[in-house]
């Protein structure tokens, strides 16, 4: 018999973590420490690229999947050069 924990891990590997799991994970992060780490990382990226950063945004079109025929949702990615 497969344990609920193993089912949970399998879902996580397929990118299907429930929102409650994200909330639990983010509640464990110290906001001040996260901010310091994130700002430090962003500054290092800006220095490496001399202020030029490629901004990337992704979206999935709602209701674009078709379970009957096994078609996945349509995903779109936009990228543009950002000068700071």
Descriptive report:
- With 84 residues, the protein is an alpha+beta fold.
- Helix content is 44%, strand content 21%.
- The protein has a two-stranded antiparallel ribbon with strand order 1-2.
- The N and C termini lie far apart (55 Å).
- The model has no long low-confidence stretch (mean pLDDT 76).
Q: Keywords, please?
A:
flat
Radius of gyration, in angstroms, nearest whole number: 19 Å
Give the helix proportion (percent range). Answer: 40-55%
Distance between the termini: 55 Å
Main sheet properties: 2 strands, antiparallel
Shape by Cα distribution = flat
Mean pLDDT: 76
Structural class: alpha+beta
Helix-strand pattern: HHHEE
Strand order of the largest sheet: 1-2
- The percent range for strand residues is 15-25%
Count of helical segments?
A: 3
Q: Say how many strands there are.
A: 2
- Low-pLDDT ranges: none
